């Protein structure tokens, strides 16, 4: 039984009142908007562990995005079955293509800026904009917050790491999500464009009073 499932990165465009101008944030958003999913080609390797109610499942999956659509390469080291392919197709239709371009929506609402003890610039999002994170048809954006760690290369600011966490516990269908912590890491490619390199996530919750959770590690290799 699949006990608990949280999205890894489901950012979609958000609408609403314009945020207070921040030149640094606005430059990052403008840069992210230029990176279309159609310009990407990568292989994604996912390792997901789910546990709860005395059960544990582990899945390793490799799939590819070619700029137009997804293809499933393998599941647990074996060729995908017809069921695997149908499941992949359904999930692909429900989720946007992951990548640096998603930061344009995520940072589009109210933000705050600070410098930490190590001298790093951090853009904080106290509450994600409405519609930026969806899970199985549920808008859970208001329950999440984020911190973007900014660096600069050749005069252009970009986000090197994004951490998204739960602001509070919340319901998602029959599941009560108690904690959620996801870290996305971005690196510059050979042309100097930031690319999503890896994501790790850890979520805990209860399903009908039974405790459980999910951990995932995802890496991206660009072609």
Q: How would you describe the overall organization of this protein?
A:
The structure is a single chain. The chain is mainly β. Helix content is 13%, strand content 48%. The chain has three helices and 13 strands. It has helices at 23-33, 82-94, 103-106, and strands at residues 42-52, 55-65, 70-75, 112-115, 121-125, 134-135, 138-139, 144-153, 156-166, 170-172, 175-188, 194-207, 210-222. The strands form two sheets. Strands 1, 2, 3, 4, 5, 8, 9, 10, 11, 12 and 13 form an eleven-stranded antiparallel β-sheet that branches. The protein has a two-stranded antiparallel ribbon with strand order 6-7. A hairpin with a 2-residue loop joins strand 6 (134-135) and strand 7 (138-139). The radius of gyration is 18 Å and the shape is globular. Residues 1-16 have low confidence and may be disordered.
Please outline the helices and strands.
Layout: H1 23-33, E1 42-52, E2 55-65, E3 70-75, H2 82-94, H3 103-106, E4 112-115, E5 121-125, E6 134-135, E7 138-139, E8 144-153, E9 156-166, E10 170-172, E11 175-188, E12 194-207, E13 210-222
Antiparallel strand pairs: 1-2, 1-13, 2-3, 4-5, 5-8, 6-7, 8-9, 9-11, 10-11, 11-12, 12-13
Structural class: mainly beta
Helix content: 10-25%
Radius of gyration: 18 Å
Q: Name the average pLDDT.
A: 89
Number of strands: 13
Q: Report the biggest beta sheet as strand number plus sense, adding barrel if it closes.
A: 11 strands, antiparallel
Q: Helical stretch count?
A: 3
Order of helices and strands: HEEEHHEEEEEEEEEE
CA(first)-CA(last) distance: 35 Å
Shape: globular
Percent of residues in beta strands: over 45%
Give the low-confidence spans: 1-16
């Amino acid at each position: 039984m699949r006990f608990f499932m949280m999205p890894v990165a489901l950012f979609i465009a958000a609408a609403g009142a314009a945020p207070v101008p921040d030149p640094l944030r606005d430059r990052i958003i403008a840069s992210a908007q230029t990176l279309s999913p159609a310009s990407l080609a990568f292989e994604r390797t996912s390792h997901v562990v789910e546990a709860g109610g005395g059960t544990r499942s582990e899945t390793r999956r490799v799939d590819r995005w070619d700029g137009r659509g997804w293809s499933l390469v393998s599941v647990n080291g074996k060729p995908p079955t017809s069921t695997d392919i149908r499941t992949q197709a359904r999930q692909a239709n429900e989720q946007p293509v992951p990548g640096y371009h998603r930061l344009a929506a995520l940072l589009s609402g109210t933000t705050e800026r600070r410098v930490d003890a190590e001298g790093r610039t951090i853009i904080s999002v106290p509450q994600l904009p409405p519609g930026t994170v969806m899970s199985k048809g549920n808008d859970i954006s208001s329950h999440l917050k984020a911190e973007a760690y900014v660096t600069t290369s050749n005069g252009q600011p970009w986000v090197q790491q994004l951490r998204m966490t739960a602001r509070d516990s919340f319901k998602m269908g029959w599941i009560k999500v108690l904690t959620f912590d996801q870290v996305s890491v971005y690196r510059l490619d050979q042309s100097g464009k930031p690319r999503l390199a890896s994501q790790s996530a850890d979520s805990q919750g209860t399903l009908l009073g039974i405790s459980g959770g999910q951990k995932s590690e995802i890496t991206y290799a660009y072609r």
